[in-house]
Design goal:
CATH architecture: Orthogonal Bundle
Number of domains: 1
CATH superfamily: Cytochrome P450
Low-confidence stretches: 1-24
Oligomer: single chain
Number of helices: 16
Order of helices and strands: EEHEEHEHHHHEHHHHHHHHEEEEHHEE
Largest sheet: 5 strands, mixed
Structural class: alpha+beta
Distance between the termini: 50 Å
Shape: globular
CATH topology: Cytochrome p450
Mean pLDDT: 88
Length: 422
Amino acid sequence: MDLAGTGRTATTAVEDITGVQHAVIDAFSPGWRHDPYRSYDILRAAGPFVPGPLGPSLVPGYAECDAILQNPAWSHAEESELLHPDSDVELPGSFLWMEPPDHTRLRGLVSKAFTPRRIEGMRGHAEQVVASLLERALADGEVDLVEALAYPLPLTMVCELLGVPASEHAAIRRMSAGIARGLDPDALMSPDELANRTAAVGEFLDFFGALVADRRARPRQDLISALAQVEAEDEDDRLTAAEMLGTLLVLVVAGHETTVNLISNGILALIRHPDQFELLRQRPGLALPAVDEMLRYDAPAQLTTRTARQEITLSGHTFAPGDSLILMLGSANRDPDAFTDPDRLDLTRYAQRARVNRHLAFGLGLHYCIGASLVRLEVEVALRAIARRVSAITLLADPPPYRPNLVVRGMSELPVRLTAAV
């Protein structure tokens, strides 16, 4: 695949330790979207650091990804420059692409919205939203579960957390989809997709700029009002306009796009592992550990980047300051050196007392997903309701169609037939 007319391709020549080439793969090709895990097997067999088609080496193994994510000497601040070097869009400053002390300050402010008490207080509303969506889906019988459940649940929850009016939810979804696609490396996107990202970011900044101004003038019981109030009261913790919009962009896009994919990926995995679906129906209490197993099994965010801030030696390789890597999180979560029978969905994996390696779907260290508790709550509630209300789910298209997105990977549709439990 030609990288946006540069003459370079996304094909990685994989060699073993003897230097003999044993496979040539295009790990970033849309042809792998429905099942990237076979290509990841090849990458892991090649070694801990595989020359990458975009410049930085690929890191496919669990041990190396785990070590890098936990080490603050590896920075996340350079990701935009690595993946979008020629972008005409300058995304507003977000703590996601910052390092301390700015990262510490901004994350501390936003984390107040994700306290265990506040998240648990959202359970009742999440249950109401799921019950309504599932009731409608069961009445229809044959549905696209992406449209019927996976999108509306997290979109509704994050918009209500922020204070976005219900009449604007569809607009938020449209903007977010354009931005999520735009998280992919520029070299893998078409001119139309790049233009769509530019338009989506502009629309997002205009919309939320106006909403922030309104909440400053007329505060309500929502997160935007709370952040705006901090601006007014605490000079030391004041967010700049760019920081406010950057924070909201991360909360909106990361707050529901990844959860959409987690729900649909998880349900597809249950369909393909009918024994595990039946186990969930018999033991609904497995819903919460099932969320973590689904995150490991088919991670909604497939990769991230890190750049060395100092000289670092890892797995026999020494990296100089400024060296960058692409961490293949989806591959690490299927590494047989880290997980027993990694290609099998096992809903009891994280319910067992024996030590199990943590998955890397939420990241680790400074940049651990700030909304992880909300994601777990939303998907747990959905799984409990499905276990109680649905006796069978039949896939109507195999494989279902996937969006072209590489970083935030998921289906565009999940057509199924639902059978109601008696």
